[in-house]
Each structure stands twice: as C-alpha cells, then as structure tokens.
Amino acid sequence: MANRQDGLAEALDNEQRTVQRLYARLDAARERAQAALRQVYAVGGALGGSRQAMVEREVAASEQARRLAQLNAVERGLCFGRIDDSGGASTYVGRIGLRDQDHESVLIDWRAPAARLFYVATATDPGGLVRRRHLHLKDRAVVGIDDEVFDLEGMSDGDRRTLVGEAALLAALRRGRTGRMADVVATIQIEQDRVIRSGLQGALVVQGGPGTGKTVAALHRAAYLLYTHRDTLERRGVLVVGPNPMFLRYIGQVLPALGETQVVMATVGELFPGVRAVAADPPVAAVVKGDLRMAEVVAAAVADRQRVPAGDLEVELDGLRLRVPHGVCARLRERARSVRLPHNMARKLYVTELLKELARAEARALEESLHLEELAVDDPELAEPLDLEGDLDEVDIALAAERLWGEEPVRRAVSELWPELTPQELVAGLLSSPETLWAVCPPGLDWTPLVRPRESPWTVGDVPLLDEAAELLGRDDSADRVAARRAGEEWAEQELYAREVLETTGLLEGGVFERADVLAERQADDGGGLTTAERAAADRAWAYGHVIVDEAQELSPMAWRTVIRRVPARSLTVVGDLAQTGSAAGARSWGEVLDPYLEGRWREERLLVNYRTPVEIMLVAADVLAAVAPWQEPPESVRDGGDEPRAVRLPVAELPGLVAAELAELGEGRLGIITPDALHAGVAALFPGAKDLDAPVVVLTVNQAKGLEFDGVVVVEPAGILEQSPMGGHDLYVAVTRATRRLTVAHEDDLPAMLSRLKSTM
Ligand SMILES: Nc1ncnc2c1ncn2[C@@H]1O[C@H](COP(=O)(O)OP(=O)(O)OP(=O)(O)O)[C@@H](O)[C@H]1O
Fold first, then answer.
1. Model-level pTM greater than 0.90?
2. What's the confidence (pLDDT) of residue 372?
3. Could you tell me which residue, 484 or 396, shows the higher pLDDT?
4. Under 8 Å CB-to-CB from 728, ≥6 apart: which residues?
5. Does the Cβ of 172 fall within 6 Å of ligand 1?
6. What's the maximum distance between 2 C-alpha atoms anywhere in the chain?
7. Binding site residue list
8. Average pLDDT over residues 64-89
9. Could you tell me the distance, in angstroms and rounded to a whole number, from the CA of residue 213 to the centre of ligand 1?
10. pLDDT-wise least confident of 261-275, 375-389, 420-434, 634-648
C-alpha cells in the first residue's frame, strides 16, 4: 500500500514538473504575442504611414489580439491528458498546441490528428498505446491522475471497458451544475469523437436521446472544424442556431473556453437582422406558417402588390387628366415581371416605363385641352388637331418622365400599382388582411389561424416569412441599416476595446498611444473594425462556411428554408432528437426536412449513451418514451445510484415548501422548476428572482427548458404539460429528462398513466 502511495506521489511530482514547463511555454507564447502586438503599433510611429500600411497593421494587430485572447482562454486545464505508446514515447494532450525553444512539440492540440488516440483507444483496440492518463489540474497544480493501462494479456472480457477514461468521465459527470455548460475536452467519448471529427463537407445529422452529448459534441465539432479548416471558416464564419436565447446563454461559454470566439449564435427568431422575434405562435398558426406552401403564399402576396388598375389608369395633374389605357398598364406589368428581377428592382423598370406612358398621356391630354379651347373660339383654321404626342422625341419623353416623377399625384398612383416594399410591410400587411390571405393562399391551406392585427409583435414563425419576402423583394439594405444603428454603440465598444488593448499590451506606458479614442479611430478606419462574425450576424444574405443547428427537430420546413439559405455550400451539422419534438410544426423524420435540399446526401451518426440522467430517472422517462415514440430506444445511462424519483400531490401554492426541501436535499445544487405554459406565470410569481440560469432556482416552461439541465428538477402538473399541445407527450419526455440527480413531480390533478411508476405521496 505504502509503495502504491509513493508511486502515486512520484507520478504526481513528475507530472507537476511537466505541467509547470508547459505553463512556462504558455507564458512565453503570451509574451511573444504581446510583444508582437506592441511592435505592430510601434512600427511607423504612432499614426503615420499610408492607408495601405495602416490597414495591414490593423490586420496584423487583430491577428495578434486574437492569438492573445486564445492563449488566455486556455489557462484553465491547459493540459489534461497523456498517452504512452509501446515504444516508450509520451505525448501530452491539451487545449492548445505548444512548442519548446527548439520548436519541438511539447503539447498537442486536442484537435490535431496526433491527439486522436487519446479519445479513441480502447482496451480491445488500443492502437499501439500502453497507457492513457488523465491529469486533473487545480489552477496550475496537478491534483490527481487517472490511468488506464491497456494490457490486453492480463485483461478479462469483463474488463474491456467501453467508456473512455471512465474514472475521469464519472468525476466530470458528478460535478454540480453551474447554470452554464462546460467543455468536455478531457473526456470526449468515442462515439462523440466520430461526430466531432467528421468531415466538413455535406450534412451530418446527429440523432440521440436526451443527455447523449449532442450539444456538447456539436460545439466541440465547431472548434474542431475551425481548427482544421481555419482559412475557409474564418473568412466565411460558423453559425450555431439554437432553440431560444436562454439556451444560447447556457452554451455560450463552451466555445470561448476552447479558444474560439468567432462563432455567431442565434435563434431562428434572430436570423433576420433588425427583427428580434421571441414570441411563439399558437400551435395551429405555427403549423400553417411553417408549411412549405407559405413560400408560394409569400410569392403570391408579392405578385398581388403588382397591380393593374380596374379600368384605365387616370391621374389628375394641374387640371389635366392623364390616362394610360388598361391594356398598356397590363403590358407594362408583364414586361417588368418577365425580367425576373426581385420586386423592388423590377419596380425601377416598371416605373420608368409607366412614367414614359404618362408623359405621352400628358401630351395627349394637353393636345386635347388645346383642341377644346380652339373649338371654343370657333376658329375653323385653328381647329385642326395638334399632334403634340407625335412631336415628342425620346429625350423629350425622358425629361417629361423625370418631371412627372416629382409630382405627388403621379408618385402616389405609380406606387399604388407597384409599391416599393420592405419585407416587414409585406408580411405585416399580408397577415392582417383576410382578403389578401384568401386571395393568395392555395386551396387546402387553412389561412384563418394566421390573421392578426397589423401591429402585432413579430413571432419566431414570422422570420422565415420575412426572409422569404426579402429574397423576393430584392437585396435589402438591412446590413447597412443595422450597421448605421450600431455605429453609435460600436464607437463606445471600440473605445473600450482599444482601452483594453492599451492596458494589456502596455502601449499606454510605452507612449505609443496616449488616448484610447485615437486607437479606436484607427481601428474603425478598417471597414468599421468589424470581425467576420459581426459582419455575418448583421447581414441577412451572408453565406456561412458551416452551420450547426441544435434542437433541430423544432424547426419548421419554412425555418429550414431560411437556415439552408445561409449555407450555400450545404455544409451542416444537424443535431436533435425526434422524440423530443415539441413544436407542432417540427420534424417527424430527418429525411422529410432535409431531402428537399440535400436529396439524400446526408449522413447520420447516432449517440446512444446518456451522460446526464441517472438510471433511476431514465426508467421513468423510458415509460414516457414508450408511450410517445415507441419506435425509439431510450439511451443507456452512464450514471446510477441517483435518488429515487418521486411524485408529491399538493396544490401549486405549496410549491415553495417542496422546493425548499428539494434544495436542502441537493446541497450545493441548482434546481429547475418546469411547468405547463398556462401555469408558468403563477408559479414564477411564487419564486421572485428565479428567472436567470445563474439563480439557484429557475422557473421555466418546457420550451425554455429544452436543451438545459439541472441537478434537481421539479416537474409541475404533468397532466397540464401533456394537454397543452398536440406534442404534449414529447414535452413531458423533455421535462423528465433534465435532471442529473433528483426528479420530483408535483401534481394536483391525477398523474398521467405514463408516470404510473411514480408512487405519489401527499
Ligand atoms: N464526454 C463527456 N464528458 C463529460 N460530460 C459529458 C460528455 N458528454 C456529455 N456530457 C455531459 O452530459 C450532459 C448532456 O450533454 P448535452 O446537453 O450535450 O446532451 P444533449 O444530447 O444535447 O441533450 P438533450 O437532447 O437533452 O438536449 C452535459 O452536461 C454534458 O456536459
């Protein structure tokens, strides 16, 4: 025993020395990046040099600043593993790659091919390794190690573990939840590694039950792809689409902790710059809005705004009546449509042509009025009709058209026939007009649930309609508008950033810059100083290099259209669980939603192990799954020995007592209270302050809880969750699979049959 202890102490000592050396290399790399940053600004004096030189300096500076940020991000847990091969060589694996003074590699980035064995070696297939070691660090000190020795000779069948680094994994899983997802770079499992390192090309679907690490694997995949395809992806950017803002906050720290800060995160409701939709439609309206036929509806609504007057077009101008025959108006509309340009662009052509017709009409009207005057003076000499129209040449017509465009009655008449439209005007107008909906919806599509007042707030389901409208109306200037609006905010941010740069680099003391605003101005000079991620987020038409869609089962067919438009290269990671589909407009099969765009050219990986929910809770969840998606196998839980789930019958008003008892059981842990939509406000009122993920208690609807997890969960009134929508059973499955340790069901109504395993106490 003493020998083993001595051996461990010695191993810790040795590893401590190595880790110290690695941190020294990290410090040296930081100093180099800081010096390089200082150098960039020092070259050519404070503000001198050509514009070209300045731009180059800014590019170099932002590269060094990014490097510095990355080196700072990897401080915690810099090195977490070591692999030893049968030839006696050891390789250390960490959050970043580092080299010594002789340029020899001393730490391998976890994403590099050489680090792969750390994740995929198993007892049955050790790939030439004799040992894998997990290092546990507290700050810069090695506080523990876990070894797996791949000694096939001495191993029985039962010993052949399927979990990689089991001890380290279980230790990671036992940690209390903080309200923010953490990276799992030290304990990635083989099936997750396959997802993470799958190629960039094409679409990868990751289907897996609750807690199988779909989200965490997808985020590590983003980091892996950025590392492996840095050039392409930094230029084009990576977009992560999540189900709601709370979820995006929950996962928001994972990529920065992996040194990657240039990823855009958005809900579908945020994909249209300038609109921030959070409200949800009632299920019936969501289904209609999400139907692919809505693309035709929007197209028909645009066409409906390109009109021909009922009779001739008549415009009163300075006592003259300009008349363009109905047939001519119809011909002009056909001609403008036939160029197949978006509405607002084709409008230019239409307006030009119509103004020319109006110019001719004006000449005719003038002729006519002169003729009448002449008739009135009764001079047969002068009564010969004039031919003013015939006398006009092209230049006269163009000049007259230009003059007419300045006349309000003309503008009004033209705009009634072919108005300039924003997507917002078109969609708000369409949804508030039963007559238009009736006229433009195809038979069989029940448009009645769509009707609403014109000033209604935007819903998430509106965003794909706005996006569709933007495509049909023409390249919009949303990026410019957002940029203009942000210009003010940006300046404040620029200055703050510049101040930080000055402080971290010491440029302030060096006297290179005295004022942060001077530096900020120079940064602003370079295309507004926006990063790829910022430019991409502000531009509706941005083409991303890769898009990750999480909780992808929730997207409607129309939402898919919007997302796919963002990634012309069709390089996608689609992550979800069809048994958790809560939206009535959501997916029932991956083929159904993806085939229209990918024609079967997508591959699927399945994740089968549940890292969140203990066996005891999963038994309850499995009953729900059997009732709502009997074709799906529940995932297998890694954890066991959790507390027995229970049900308590009590009125909602008594929840605070139950929650206090649950918190006492959890000790340090955090608790989520999940309610039916209808009870949410009432329950939230019982727990003031329980709104944010950082609070010890948070009250959520199932929709808000999607993708999140808590040490303990209280599910309130499951019968209400079941009944709240056609997908209520799926919602209940989501609710009962959020806990890592304790699940308690609080109910006043009878428990649904699918929860009969729970014995209710008063
Ligand atoms: N390899 C791993 N090492 C340590 N923890 C892991 C690992 N894989 C998953 N986890 C943890 O398991 C939990 C569930 O992971 P995640 O949220 O990614 O699952 P999910 O499949 O997206 O779940 P859901 O479908 O319910 O949203 C998280 O706390 C995650 O950190």
1. no
2. 65
3. 396
4. 721, 722
5. yes
6. 133
7. 208-215
8. 91
9. 3
10. 375-389
* DSSP 3-state of 502: helix
Cα→Cα distances 656→344, 645, 686, 698, 715, Å: 57, 19, 7, 12, 13
| Closest residue by Cα to residue 318 from 356, 359, 362 | 362
Residue nearest to atom 27 of ligand 1 (CA): 707
| Three-state secondary structure call for residue 639 | coil
Cα of 612 vs centre of ligand 1, distance in Å, is 6
Burial environment of residue 30 by CB neighbours within 10 A (0 to 12, 13 to 18, 19 or more): middle
> How far apart are the CA of 82 and the centre of ligand 1, in A?
24
Please check the confidence at residue 389 and state whether its pLDDT lies above 70.
Answer: no
Q: The tokens of 38 are what? A: 């200082």
CA distance 690 to 676: 16
Residue with structure tokens 């072919």?
A: 418
Helices marked H in 378-407: 388-391, 394-405
- Binding-site annotation: residue ranges for ATP: 208-215
Q: Does the interface predicted TM-score (ipTM) exceed 0.85?
A: yes
- Ligand 1 centroid, distance to 613 Cα (angstroms): 10
Residue 108 is classified by DSSP as E
Listed range (378-382, 570-574, 675-679, 718-722) with the worst mean pLDDT? 378-382
Give the pLDDT confidence score for residue 527 in this predicted structure: 44
- Please classify residue 640 by burial: count the beta carbons closer than 10 Å to its beta carbon, then call 0-12 exposed, 13-18 middle and 19+ buried: exposed
Question: How far is 60 from 463, CA to CA, in rounded Å?
Answer: 38
Whether ligand 1 lies within 6 angstroms of the CB of 213 is answered as yes
Whole-number Å distance between alpha carbons of 634 and 579: 10
* Type of residue at 590: W
Give the pLDDT confidence score for residue 161 in this predicted structure: 47
pLDDT tens across 550-563, in order? 999 999 999 999 99
First to last CA, the chain: 51
Torsion angles phi and psi, residue 546, rounded to 5: -155, 145
Residue 564 pLDDT greater than 80, yes or no: yes
pLDDT tens column, 461-488: 999 999 999 999 986 454 555 555 555 5
- pLDDT (tens digit per residue) in 139-153: 999 999 999 888 655
CB of 288 within 8 A of CB of 447? yes
The closest alpha carbon to 329, from 351, 347, 349, 313, belongs to 313
Nearest to 537 by CA among 221, 287, 270, 359: 270
- Per the DSSP assignment, residues forming a β-bridge with 239 are 264, 547
The answer to whether the CB of 187 falls within 8 A of the CB of 146 is no
Query: How far apart (Å, rounded) are the C-alpha atoms in residues 127 and 698?
Result: 46
Phi and psi at residue 697, in whole multiples of 5°?
-130, 140
- Rounded Cα gap, residues 191 and 184, in angstroms: 14
What is d(CA 619, CA 634) in angstroms, rounded to the nearest whole number? 9
- Give all strands (DSSP E) within 128-208, no chain letters: 129-138, 141-149, 203-208
Residue 457 in tokens: 């707030």
| Strand-strand pairing, 739-747 and 646-649 | parallel
Q: Is residue 216 lining ligand 1, measured as CB closer than 6 Å?
A: yes
Q: pLDDT at residue 107 above 60?
A: yes
